[in-house]
Amino acid sequence: MHQQKIEAAQEGDAALAAAYPLRGARLSHGLAHHPLLQLAALADAALAMQDAHVECRTSATAGFTDSGADKRTLMRQILDGSVDGWLMLRFADQVGAYRDLLADTLASYAHIIEPVTGPMRDPKAFIFLSSDQTVTPLHIDPTYNILFQIAGRKIFSTYPLAPPVVTPAMEEGFHSRGDNLLPWHADIAALGSDERLEPGDALFVPHKLPHRVAVVGGLSISISMTWKSDWSMAEGAAHRANARLRQWGWNPPPVARWPKTSRFRAMAARILER
Ligand SMILES: [Fe+2]
Q: Is the whole-model pTM more than 0.90?
């Protein structure tokens, strides 16, 4: 059993090393029974966190319940399964024990990641509790991500970071205005590739790779551990510079793709944003 676990971890490492940073990779992990990731501990963590960082909504209305007593009630109902909904602990690493879990887990991948994209910047943890059939619509995130499936099952579908899924205008809108949701229709749906994630499975999701996530069969718990790199932060800054140049009536060239950097535009954006 122990030997099998070591072999699975070695296979995951090899898959990540071959894929990083542009392609996704399936990994395995040993966090499914971690005490910090069970329902009771997550309920305590949700109550210990800043209210604004616990996002909560019912599947039925898809509207967020913002704060106060209603939110606490809804959180408890989602956690005990009496109401269908979705709960996200944004920046769970604000709670010390989760900060250590994040640091230890990411450190175990650093020997693969850091030789390629340098130091892992701005690490964050997001914990998702989602009722059966919850769908997170197609979107992009400004980070690299490893999603660890803890309980329940998810279909994690990824789509090309290219038109028609993401046009250059959408990418610029994402960096300059934070519009992270992407249009969804049948032609786009056909371009997806699905990964079925069970407890013990993890998925490396490249920086900005579009994805849509559906929970299938019971309450799902997962934790995303994200990071940035000097390259990804410069790339975002260069997109913001392009947005600014366009406002001024210029027509800037496209932002460089990995491994190139649009150095001057990244620098200009940072100076303007000071
Ligand atoms: Fe995401």
A: yes
